[in-house]
Design a protein that fits this description.
Blueprint lengths: L20 H27 L23 H29 L5 H26 L4 H24 L20 H30 L15 H29 L4 H23 L4 H26 L11
Helix pairs in contact: 1-2, 1-4, 1-8, 2-3, 3-4, 4-5, 4-8, 5-6, 5-8, 6-7, 7-8
Length: 320
């Protein structure tokens, strides 16, 4: 597969030269980072009980677009304002992708999907307010963010400039069409699916727990102990599958072993935070770190399947 040229080329919109690959890559990283930051700030809104700090949407109460002079109102309004920063970054990334030459249609679709996800999330966020923080709507809001993060990770992976490091001879030890290589791909996709299942069940635990976002909002009426046990079972299934993938990639020296090791490290860190927060009564800081860990885990799982399938890489910019 051919790599994209880093030469900006003669084209571009409105007389501007097309951006370099490095410029596009930087905006893709900014787009991903902004979405991860939104996970953290959204978690802070819920964990401080500020979910209804702006009791209406799109206004912030009493028909006004400014926050009430209260602690919760300022926090919720600040999180809403961060959305506009995310909009600006998403639009800038989209323009950079659209102006890049040679044309990368996959990157264009990814950038468009991420950009459209921002207003969609704003609407879903408004629905969460109008439903008084219904836990199932809040969970859906979080899962859509995870989807956007996964797409943004794919965009970063695809626009990554070429590395000048020499190839690893071990990567060629197992042919890509071998049974072992195909097993590695299957395990990587299994890990990705299990990551989604684990994160979803984490939202179910959250919906049954004490951090509702507002003292008057309802919970999902599930037994927190039962929901936590189900989530824990999914975590251990993910750990077992991830460990099997790491063993396979290291022993067979598959090309995706580095991504597998990184994912394994993130998984261990996330598991430790999860158990510590449960044992210590869900302190706010640890819960926020756990939410951040979920976003990082989704990034790691996405990179894992991209490395396994060789899909979405910058090496292939043929029109698709």
């Amino acid at each position: 597969m051919s790599r994209p040229s880093t030469d900006p080329g003669p084209g571009g919109w409105f007389g501007f030269r097309a951006p370099t690959l490095g410029f596009l890559y930087a905006w893709a990283i900014a787009d991903l980072a902004a979405n991860v930051l939104l996970v953290v700030t959204g978690g802070a809104v819920r964990l401080t009980g500020s979910g209804l700090g702006c009791p209406t949407w799109p206004q912030c109460g009493d028909g006004k677009y400014t926050p009430p002079l209260s602690y919760h109102g300022v926090i919720e309004f600040g999180n809403r304002m961060l959305t506009w920063v995310l909009v600006a970054i998403a639009i800038a990334t989209w323009f950079a992708v659209m102006r890049y030459r040679p044309v990368d249609r996959v990157a264009r679709r990814l950038a468009t999907g991420v950009a459209l996800g921002v207003p969609l999330q704003a609407v879903i966020g408004g629905i969460t307010v109008l439903t008084k923080l219904n836990p199932w709507v809040v969970a859906f809001h979080f899962l859509v963010t995870m989807l956007i993060i996964s797409l943004a990770t794919w965009l970063v992976h695809r626009t990554r400039p070429a590395r000048s490091a020499p190839p690893d001879d071990g990567d060629a030890l197992i042919p890509r069409d071998s049974v072992i290589a195909r097993l590695g791909v299957a395990l990587a996709w299994t890990v990705y699916v299990l990551t989604w299942v684990t994160i979803y069940l984490g939202t179910v635990v959250t919906g049954s727990g004490p951090h509702s976002g507002d003292e008057n909002s309802h919970r999902n009426d599930l037994d927190p102990a039962w929901a936590t046990q189900l989530h824990s079972d999914a975590v251990w299934t993910l750990v077992g599958t991830g460990f099997a993938l790491i063993l396979l990639t290291v022993i067979a020296r598959l090309a995706l072993r580095r991504a597998a090791l990184w994912f394994g490290g993130l998984l261990i860190l996330q598991g430790v935070i999860g158990y510590v927060q449960y044992a210590t009564g869900l302190p706010i800081l640890l819960v926020i770190l756990h939410m951040l860990g979920s976003a990082l885990l989704m990034i790691g799982a996405t990179v894992l399947v991209l490395e396994a399938s060789r899909a979405g890489r910058t090496r292939d910019l043929t029109p698709a």
